[in-house]
Amino acid sequence: MKSWKQKAVGLIGLGMFLLFALVAGMFVYMGATSKPLHPNPQDVPSVMHVAPPQNWTGAVEQARQIVRASAAGQNLPGVSVAVGVGGEIVWTEGFGWAHLANRVPVTPDIQFRIGTASQALTSAA
């Protein structure tokens, strides 16, 4: 016959497993039923302040397609990209939305709000 301590440990373990299963199930459900922010990668809005130099146009166009596909595939609201070569910035562009509700587009010089993620960095400084 099991002691009451063994039964208590078993019940606590079962409770923790059920809680984990519930949380994991919620993540799966939310991922499966969430509405995509950018259903079509070609429709992801973008803002480019300065056109890239002629010798980088092909590479930039290829990178733009990759960024758009990634934003749509990973359901990202917005992405800002900057590429430098030899100490010079050759391409900057913002893709998607900086503010979803107001449909404010991402620009190359936008500062994203990272919320409480910066608290750990601030406390460590």
Describe the structure.
Helices cover 42% and strands 19% of the residues. With 125 residues, it is of the alpha+beta class. It has two domains: 1-34; 41-124, no CATH class. Strands 1, 2, 3 and 4 form a four-stranded antiparallel sheet that branches. Strand 3 (88-99) and strand 4 form a beta hairpin. The model has no long low-confidence stretch (mean pLDDT 88).
Total number of strands: 4
Number of H/I helices: 3
Class by SSE composition: alpha+beta
What is the succession of H and E elements? HEHEEEH
Percent strand equals: 15-25%
Cα(first) to Cα(last) distance is 55 Å
- Calculate the mean pLDDT score and round it: 88
**CA-based shape:** elongated
**Major pleated sheet:** 4 strands, antiparallel
Summarize the structure.
With 125 residues, this protein is of the alpha+beta class. The chain has three helices and four strands; from the N terminus they run H-E-H-E-E-E-H. A hairpin with a 2-residue loop joins strand 2 (78-85) and strand 3.
Observed structural traits:
19% strand; single chain; four-stranded antiparallel β-sheet; elongated; alpha+beta; 3 helices; 125 residues
Layout of SSEs?
Blueprint: H1 4-33, E1 46-47, H2 57-73, E2 78-85, E3 88-99, E4 104-105, H3 119-124
Antiparallel strand pairs: 1-3, 2-3, 3-4
